Amino acid sequence: MSPLLDFVAQHEEAFKGYKRLSSLYSDFSSQRSTNPDGYNANVKAWKKALSDAARAGLIPKQGDSRDLINIRTGEELARALQEPKLGRPTCLPVVFADAVAKKEFVPLKDFLTSPTSIYKSSWIPSPWSILQWGLRQAGVIGQPGFSNKLDIGDFVVLSNLETAATDILEQISSVPFTVDRIMSRAEFLKRHGKVLNPGTSISSTDLDILLIHLARDKQALSYTKDTIKFKTPTDNLPSPITQDDTSIAVLRDQIANIRAQIQSITEKVSAADAEVRDCIKQKQHTRAKAALRLRKLAESALQHRTDVALQLEGLYAHLEQAADTVGVVAAMKAGGSALKSLNREVGGAEGVTEVVDAVREEIAKTDEITAIINESSQPVDEIEIDDELEALENAEKEKKQRQEDAEKKKREKEEAAKTAARLQELERLEGERKNTAQREQQLEEHIQRLDQLTADTPELANDNLNQSFSHMSFQEESQSDAEEEAERVPMAA
Q1: Which of 44, 79, 96, 295 is deepest in the core (most CB within 10 A)?
Q2: Where is this region: Disordered (predicted)?
Q3: What pLDDT does residue 387 have?
């Protein structure tokens, strides 16, 4: 199983299940009229699978590189999609024809040579340049029918292209300095080459497609053979590439190369130093001297590259400052022109003075007209207004006083009811207290008699005690019974 077929089987849900796979690999062109839903579902599944596989870098192509935005059709693609049991898919011409008709796949030649944006409604790909084979095989031109051989063609996957362009523009939007938006093609690939796939960089064909899309369709940059420049946030359209832009791109490449050289030489210095120490430990003086010479030479080269890097980076810093100054001056110039135009529109200081005088004159006329109208109208009796206002205020005060009196009486009545309830409660508690005191006194008297009788005659005391308790009458209460039970004294036998 090829890597492409394995990827489709693992990542595309529509290709899981033998029954569904059989439908996708069959000749379903006739379903366009008999079963439109099934036809559209199959075409949609194939377009998604091919787009995802292209983004993963699995579409076969001559050479070592793999396109992530462009799909090349032909025998290699059909062979890579050949299923062990179902064979090659016979539906690919139909899939590509449908995708082109819906502007989801764009013929590469038409995309590269079109002078207008692909987003314009009037843009239509040329069917006779590349798609004649696909349209004829799909039945769009001539009689329906299929060929066993998939013709060669190149198609731009618009969804992958738009994803890459969106991510790149989002990254560029956070770049603060104007000169950082200028770069060579090599630096562009280094910074944005893996925008679609972290493990695979876009090819040279993808780069050409992407630059044309960003320049023509998005109007986000301008570029030449060697230099790329993104527009600034304040620009409506990207400015053309100048010689200064090319020089800045070359300088950035030189700084990057010097930094790479410094890194490599630093590693050589570290390796030579380690070898010197190892030779000294092993007492190999000849090798130690040779390694020491190499370290000295590497250190000298490192110092030279460091000095050059400092000079280039200092120059680049000045370029950043100068570019920002140019932007500030241009903004001030534009603001001054706008201010001058606005002052011209208002007629300068003299024009404003005339307008203010005219306004004042009209205001004076308006006041005069208002005074005349007020004189002709019926005057208002101020004394009558004051009397009516006083009557309304007195009525409001009386209403408020009545409400306060009613609330006061209500509160007094409530307080009286609460006081009466408290008094009743106090009388009840006092009565209970007196009853309790009386019972306690009777009990105490009986106890004293019992003590006296016990001292004289124990047997007689028991009989008298029983008779005394039988004649006593107590009112049962929970607390009084508990207290009497606690105060009882056991008698001697």
Answers
A1: 96
A2: 394-493
A3: 78
Kindly tell me the sign of the dihedral angle through the C-alpha atoms of 165, 171, 176, 178.
negative
Tell me 64's DSSP state: S
Residue 326: predicted pLDDT: 73
Whole-angstrom CA distances from 228 to 75, 172, 208 are 36, 12, 12
Give the span between the Cα atoms of 18 and 400, in whole angstroms.
90
> Of 333, 322, 13, nearest to 178 (Cα)?
322
Determine the Cα–Cα distance for residues 93 and 432; give it in Å rounded to an integer: 111
Q: How many CB atoms lie within 10 A of CB 50?
A: 26
Q: Residue 115 CA to chain centroid, in angstroms? A: 37
pTM value is 0.61
Q: For 180, which DSSP code? A: G
Radius of gyration of the chain (CA): 52
How do beta strands 221-223 and 105-107 pair? unpaired
Q: How many CA atoms are closer than 13 Å to the CA of 1, on its beta-carbon side?
A: 12
DSSP code, position 334: H
Q: How far apart are CA 338 and CA 335, in angstroms?
A: 5
Q: CB 58: neighbour CB atoms within 10 A?
A: 20
Q: Domain residue spans in the chain?
A: 3-230, 243-336, 433-470
Asked whether 38 and 31 are in contact (CB, 8 A), the reply is yes
Coil vs helix vs strand at 57 = coil
Q: Token pair 């040279």 is at which residue?
A: 204
CA distance 95 to 99: 6
Other C-beta atoms within 10 Å of 319: how many?
19
Q: What CA–CA distance (Å, rounded) separates 425 from 119?
A: 95
Give residue 282's pLDDT. Answer: 86
- By DSSP bridging, strand 182-184 and strand 227-230 are antiparallel
CB 8 within 8 A of CB 15: yes
SS3 59: coil
Point out the residues of the chain with pLDDT beneath 50: 128-131, 133, 135-148, 461, 465, 473-480, 482-487, 489-493
Give the pLDDT confidence score for residue 133 in this predicted structure: 46
For position 126, what pLDDT does the model report? 60
- Residue 99: closest CA among 61, 62, 54, 60: 54
Whether the CB-CB separation of 71 and 154 falls below 8 Å is answered with: yes
DSSP codes of every residue in 188-253: HHHHHTTSSBTTB---HHHHHHHHHIIIIIS--EEE-SSEEEEPPTT-SSPPPP-HHHHHHHHHHH
DSSP structure string for 247-283? HHHHHHHHHHHHHHHHHHHHHHHHHHHHHHHHHHHTT
Give SS3 for 156. Answer: strand
What does the alpha-carbon distance between residue 172 and residue 183 come to, in Å, rounded to a whole number? 12
The CATH class, in words, for 243-336 is: mainly alpha
Contact call for residues 231 and 220 (beta carbons, < 8 A): yes
